[in-house]
Write a structure and sequence with these properties.
Radius of gyration: 25 Å
Number of helices: 27
Shape: globular
Structural class: alpha/beta
Number of domains: 3
Low-confidence stretches: 1-5, 90-130
Strand order of the largest sheet: 4-3-2-1-5-6-7-8
């Protein structure tokens, strides 16, 4: 008897989100969907070879059979969905070409079984090496771009029919010359936006108001720009996109129209450029067209702390990215004074023999607002379960070694031993990142966890997060290093005390208003946490200090200040 799918598991979206992609994009999404983390370079190289020999389903089956995947609460449902898709793709091959010949392409290029045609298009051929099936597999790879174009055209028509496709933008940025904004990172990112991804999305939303801003994807194959239509930009920036797309496939750059930059254009990129738009390649391309580039420095973590990186080659790739910025950028935006100092220090140590670009800083914003948003029934249940366990302290961060969760968990082990049921709850919100396997394995065996005083929440929406901030006792941010630290600014914007590490940008983020300790100072952190738990007047005094002195900033404020900086700079040059 087949095990039923859990009601919250959308098998169609799960399958489409993976198999609507090809090559490295496919492998990256498979890792994110199945292992809940980014793919490392060794894994990408390994599975690229497997795709060539045995097809993409073999990659997915290998990932699903790993111990890491089997810890996922929906592992069984994912396994069943992939096996079902594999059977359908095999038997559906013989019917696809006649259907295409008759023009039988339904909304978003789906087959009648509910799976996207591109799922069938990348199906693996059987191990017996059937020549006919292998030939059809190759044919489907070649028509994948055609299907993507058809799906894009249909989506555009529906978007306009819904009344959402008429852009009301009438403002002009700067003097009217063209700005080109790179949205490649957001196109690839199909889970809840964090950190750098969130910054790119929020700045893109702000820039949509200007009619002289074009949005592009970087096409690594042709090393050129591909233009996104406005409706495509809005889809990428929608909530659906962050939830795995709800059937929406990431855009394949090769299917988009080229955009050729011209002298006088200004290129803006604030994403994960070292992964999705390699800066040396982009700078070489822009140099041929005399285009100015505004690039970003979120931090210098990969260069300064290579031990925290997901793949061995990343530190060197990131250093090449920073060097290329120094040689080719017109201007650099840094999210903090600390990031600016670190970038200048890197360039000094690298002894670049060129005139370095200027660096301007604009601090990051938060989503927090006065009115709490509405929650879905499922979100209300999650919040109710947190409330049922009593007062809680909050840490919002992906789980990885640099974020220093171990310190807080060790403190909570002591608090549980000393206080028992009077120990407050520690709520940890964030996805599992690289290097978190051992820690996440150990947490469920801790007495403080089995006693209900450690609560791990994943896939938390911005709406639910706003409620968690609003109702917590206080927050912690003990990270070993941060270029900014969005969770600290979000806590402050919500009026909640945040204990931070006394390093990098975190004291700057909290505007020197909050308690700060060395990230390895167990005694100092524990005493401060106990004081905030037990001394309510002390905590209220700190909250009053936030209300009176903390200067909060919205994402619109951020976008406005960013544009003011680049407008002034570009105008000055002309």
């Amino acid at each position: 008897m087949t095990e039923p799918y859990p009601p919250q598991f959308d098998k169609v979206s799960f399958i489409n989100n993976i198999f609507n992609l090809v090559g490295k994009d496919f492998i990256g999404q498979a890792y994110r969907s199945i292992l809940l983390r980014e793919a490392d370079e060794v894994g990408i190289d390994h599975y690229m070879r497997i795709i060539d020999r045995r097809g993409p389903f073999r990659v997915v089956f290998d990932l699903l059979n790993s111990d890491e995947a089997k810890r996922h609460p929906h592992w069984r449902a994912m396994d069943l969905a992939v096996r079902e898709a594999h059977r359908k793709s095999f038997w559906g091959l013989r019917n696809i070409f006649p259907a295409l010949a008759k023009g039988a392409v339904r909304h978003d290029a789906r087959h009648s079984d509910g799976y996207a045609l591109s799922t069938i298009g990348v199906a693996s051929h059987p191990a017996d090496g059937s020549a006919d099936l292998h030939s059809k597999y190759s044919d489907f790879q070649r028509i994948h771009e055609q299907l993507a174009r058809i799906a894009s055209q249909i989506s555009q028509i529906e978007y306009r029919l819904d009344g959402e496709g008429q852009d009301a933008c009438s403002e002009i940025l700067g003097r009217g010359d063209r700005y080109i904004f790179n949205l490649s990172t957001s196109n690839h990112w199909r889970i809840h936006a964090v950190g750098i991804v969130r910054v790119e999305r929020e700045l893109a939303r702000y820039l949509l108001r200007y009619k002289n801003v074009d949005f592009i994807l970087w096409d690594g194959a042709s090393r050129s720009f591909r233009r996104l239509e406005r409706y495509q930009v809005r889809l990428i920036l929608s909530d659906r996109w962050q939830d795995g797309g709800s059937g929406l496939a990431s855009f394949v750059p090769a299917t988009l129209q080229p955009l050729t930059p011209e002298a006088g254009d200004t290129y803006i990129s604030v994403g994960l450029d070292w992964d999705h738009a390699p800066t040396p390649d982009v700078m070489a391309y822009l140099g041929r067209h005399s285009v100015k580039a505004i690039l970003a420095c979120h931090d210098t973590v990969p260069a300064r702390f290579p031990e925290f990186m997901v793949r061995e080659s990343l530190p060197q790739e990131f250093k090449q990215h920073l060097v290329a910025m120094g040689h080719g950028a017109f201007k650099i935006w840094a999210n903090s004074k600390a990031s600016k100092r670190d970038l200048e220090r890197f360039w000094a140590d690298a002894k670049l023999e060129c005139e370095l670009p200027d660096i301007f800083t604009v601090p990051l914003a938060s989503y927090a607002s006065g009115a709490l948003p509405m929650l879905t029934a499922a979100e209300q249940n999650v919040l109710g379960e947190v409330f049922r366990k009593g007062e809680y302290v909050l840490y919002v961060s992906s789980v990885e070694p640099r974020k220093n969760h171990r310190l807080i968990l060790d403190i909570w082990r002591d608090l549980w031993r000393e206080r028992g049921e009077d120990c407050p709850q520690f709520v940890l919100v964030g996805m599992a990142g690289w290097g978190s396997h051992d820690l996440l394995n150990r947490i469920p065996r801790m007495p403080v966890f089995t006693g209900g005083k450690v609560n791990l929440l994943k896939n938390v929406s911005d709406n639910l997060l706003a409620h968690l901030y609003h109702n917590c006792a206080f927050t912690v941010f003990p990270s070993l290093y941060e270029g900014w630290g969005l969770a600290a600014s979000e806590s402050m914007a919500s009026g909640r005390v945040c204990i931070v590490a006394d390093n990098s940008a975190l004291p700057e983020v909290t505007q020197q208003l909050m308690p700060a300790y060395h990230p390895l100072d167990f005694i100092g952190w524990k005493k401060e946490i106990e004081k905030l738990i037990d001394d309510v007047p002390y905590r209220k005094d700190l909250e009053s200090k936030i209300a009176e002195e903390y200067e909060s900033m919205s994402w619109d404020d951020f976008g406005k200040q960013f544009c003011e900086n680049i407008e002034a700079d570009i105008s000055y040059v002309r």
